[in-house]
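Example 3.2
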Amino acid sequence: MGSRRTDSLRELLERVYRRYNRSACIGSDPLQYAYRFSDARDMEIAAFLAAALAYGRVQQIHRSLDRLFSLIGPSPYEFTAGFSASSRRKLAGFKHRFTTGRDIADLLELLSGVLSRHGSLRSFFTSGYDAQDETVLPALTRFCDVLGTEYADTHGGRLSRGLMYLLANPRRGSASKRLHLFLRWMVRDDDVDPGLWTGIDKAKLIVPVDVHMGRLCQILGLHESRTISLATAVKITAAFAKIEPADPVKYDFALSRIGIVENCNGRYRAECEACELFGVCVQKEHWTK
C-alpha cells in the first residue's frame, strides 16, 4: 500500500471514526450490555456473553440478550462463579437462533471453573499471553484449547457443536469474529471500548471480521478474499496496521456502524451519497444493482 494511498485511507477512516466512534452509538451494539453493570467483574462476563451471541439480526441479538440477562439476574459474575444445577435449569428454555440454553449453560460451567482457578477471564487469558507473540492468536488459541479440552474430558472426548460455535477456535481456521470482538472490548479504551484488561498490547489485536466487515474492507481495497476465514482476518488486520500500526482495530466499531446503523447492504440507495465511503464505492463498483 503506497504512502499516498495510506494517507488517503487514513483520512477517510478518521472521518468515519469521528462520526461513529462515540458513546451515543453504543446502543446499537451488543457492547451496551457490558455497560449495564458497574462492577468490572460483571462487565467482563456480560461482555463475553454479549459477544458470544453477536450473530444474526441486530434486533434478534438484543432480544436474546435481554432474555439471557433477565435469567442470569443482577450479577453475571456471581451467577457464573456459583454456577450449579439450578443455574442450568434456569437457562433450559433459552434459545438464540441455534444456540440453546444448554450451550450457554455448558459455557458458563466452564467459565465458572476459570473463575475458581484464576479469579477472572483476564487472568486466565493472560496466563497464556506472550508479549513476544506477533498477535493475540496464540493466546486465544490456548484459551479455546483449554476450555475445549476440559469439556471434552467429561463428555466422551468431544466438544458439542453448540459449544464449538461459541468457542470458535482459530486453530480450525475460523476468523473467530465474536472472540476478537470481545478482545477488542476488553483491551481497547476509548469512548466506546471499556478497556477493562491491562497488560495486552492493542497492536496485537485482530480485526473482528464477518461478512459485512469483509465486504466493507473489500470496498476499501484491503483484501480480495471470497470467504471469511482466519487468513482473511489476518490480511485485513495487516492492512489496517499499515494505516494505524499501534491500533489496527481502531476503526472496527465505526465501520460496522455503516452496516448496523445505516443499513448498508451493498446496494445503492439515495442515502449512500451521505456516506464517507461513497466515492470509494463508486470507484470500486461494489454495488449490487
